[in-house]
Amino acid sequence: MIEARTHGTVVEAEFAARIDKIRARVALKLADRIQQTDAALSQMIGNGSDAVAAVASAYRWFHDISGVGPTIGFELTGRQAQSCASILLSPFRAQRGLLPDELKLLTSGLESLRIAALNETHQPG
């Protein structure tokens, strides 16, 4: 019984260590990726292939962060990323660029994501 409990504790510790490594890796890339997405906002307007590609790339990234965020302790970051992904869902599915109102919503959502990420990763702003 003690051996099983000890083995369980070791497995849990290994799992926690792996999650910590993933968390650190995501935290290192998060601010840079938010900045890249912010810089790409102007490319997301219109219906050209560049706009479609920029929307698709941003949507996939927001979707990824919204999925992994809560698992690695970035709950608010994950929720904010989900909000941004929701804004991009229609343009992504329709393979089009953003409308002006969508761009305004995404710009605001991206700022909320940046603030959440700064708070959860404890990076100086």
Could you explain how this protein is built, in words?
- The chain has 125 residues and is mostly helical.
- It has a single domain (2-121), classed as HPT domain (Four Helix Bundle (Hemerythrin (Met), subunit A), Up-down Bundle).
- 81% of the residues lie in helices and 0% in strands.
- It is built from 4 helices and no strands.
- The longest helix has 39 residues, at 2-40.
Topology diagram in text:
Elements: H1 2-40, H2 49-68, H3 75-94, H4 100-121
Key terms:
81% helix, 125 residues, mainly alpha, 0% strand
How much of the sequence lies in strands comes to under 5%
| Number of helical stretches of at least 4 residues | 4
The helical percent reads: over 70%
Return residue spans where pLDDT drops below 50 for at least 5 consecutive residues. Answer: none
CATH topology: Four Helix Bundle (Hemerythrin (Met), subunit A)
Indicate the overall shape: elongated
**CATH architecture classification:** Up-down Bundle
CATH H-level superfamily title = HPT domain
Q: Tally of extended strands?
A: 0
Largest sheet: none
Q: Which H/E pattern describes the elements?
A: HHHH
How far do the termini sit from each other?
49 Å
CATH top level label = Mainly Alpha
Going by helix content, strand content and strand pairing, the class is mainly alpha
The number of distinct structural domains comes to 1
- CA-atom Rg in angstroms: 18 Å
Mean pLDDT: 90
